[in-house]
Amino acid sequence: MASLADEKYELITRRLQEVLGGDLIKAILAEGRTPKCYWGTAPTGRHARAAHIGYFVPLTKIADFLRAGVEVTILLADVHAFLDNLKAPLELVAHRTEYYKKILLAVFTSLGIPTSKLRFVEGSSYQLTKEYNLDNYRLCAIVTEHDAKKAGAEVVKQVESPLLSGLLYPGLQALDEQYLDCDFQFGGVDQRKIFTFAELYLPRLGYKKRAHLMNPMVPGLGGGKMSSSDPDSKIDFLDAPEVVRRKIKKAFCEEGNVDENGVLSFVEAVLIPISQLRIERAKGQTGADADEGAGATGSQRPFVLEGASEGTVFSIFRKEEYGGSLHYASIEQLKEDFKERKLHPKDLKTAVADAIVQLLDPIRQAFEKDEEWQKVEKLAYPDPNAKPEKKKKASLACLTVQNGGKNAKPADGAAAGEAASTEPAVPAEGAHSAAEAAKQQETSS
User: 395 and 365, same structural domain?
Assistant: First the structure.
């Protein structure tokens, strides 16, 4: 019979593509301690809103962490967003950070994941401190250009003349593990090189080695990588039902092809896991997270039709004249039917589009009811065709600077469920000089 520690480890690691350092997590669980993890996202988005439904994969997985009693930190990596080839200009970083936070809170709530158990931290709340920067310099003194470039190859935008900022990116992400006081970092498999970079270099600074958990990446609707720069390759969290159906209709879904099929991959990585989550919750199987499902918005039904047999996790409606509806207990069964052409692409696309519309409905409704969120969106993603206004020169003061350390606390107004300020905070040590500058300006005018 499996021990409680074994059951928790199974929950923590199920449906992942790869686990590095699993023994570290097992040791913590065996000792009866509470594992701590962090998942981070950089609030970017040069082309429309960057947060897309591929995020359902890691966000749904966080429910398993909470069920296993893991303490979860969500990092809004504003400094990283700027460093990654200037994807987010400094003057927009604060607004995009707030936009991302609102999106994440709405998605977590729609999934029934209690946001009160999540700790939200903005990277700039500790990444601009003296202590962190000294560690960054220490890291720069031992990391080669080759290692830094290799580590960020899958994450940092690759250009012909790479900027120094892209080389700093992996080191900062490694240091985040120490300053967020985590036992493991969670991310997509595209982060693997950064994870192994952290495992190699953190011990060289005298810090402990962490475990790393990786979820599979959802391919784009065209079959390749889901890209924020290609509107038709991904679906935005706020896309209207007609937009969702149009994109799914255009998606590459060749009959019999199960290897390069973004629609089928979405069923496997998102829809079936969410169905399983809801089925288990209905049975009371939420482990340490007794609050899961409380306050959830939107339909919490699994993607299963009435009359389906026990164990079904995904159904596809078909008229009786075409053989009747199909019910699947696993992705393997669904893939086999598709490969043997027992399931037509049109029927699969219709079922997937219906499920996505259902998933996005509560998120879109939350946005439509939140005037502040709507204002933030306009500030975060201004109309590129609008005439530019003269603005003061941007500086790092645009990022919220707060005291932080190895156990950084959430920034004021950044706790789950609270609205973050869109006004950049002035560092305490700079308040006097700012006041003096204002006085001089008054005197001279």
Answer: no
* Three-state secondary-structure class, residue 133: helix
CA-wise closest residue to 176 among 165, 167, 185, 163:
185
| 124-150 confidence digits (pLDDT tens) | 999 999 999 999 999 999 999 999 999
pTM, two decimals, is: 0.85
Q: Give the integer Cα–Cα distance in Å for 44 and 386.
A: 20
230: pLDDT strictly greater than 70: no
Residues 235 and 307 occupy one common structural domain: yes
Q: Are 370 and 419 in contact (CB under 8 A)?
A: no
Higher pLDDT, 232 or 224: 232
Assess whether 70 and 34 both reside in one domain: yes
Q: How far, in Å, CA of 75 to CA of 71, rounded?
A: 13
Do 356 and 322 lie in one domain? The reply is: yes
- Considering the domain architecture, whether residues 38 and 103 belong to the same structural domain is answered as yes
3-class SS of residue 189: helix
Give the domain extent around 337.
231-378
CATH code (residue 45): 3.40.50.620
DSSP letter for 114, please.
-
Residue 83 lies in a domain: yes
State the total domains in the chain: 2
pLDDT in tens, 100-131: 999 999 999 999 999 999 999 999 999 999 99
CA 417, CA 400: separation in Å to the nearest integer?
18
Residue 78 and residue 132 in one domain: yes
Lowest mean pLDDT among 192-206, 319-333, 342-356, 430-444: 430-444
Distance CA 72, CA 82 (A): 24
Q: Is pLDDT of 293 > 70?
A: yes
The letter for the amino acid at 397 is A
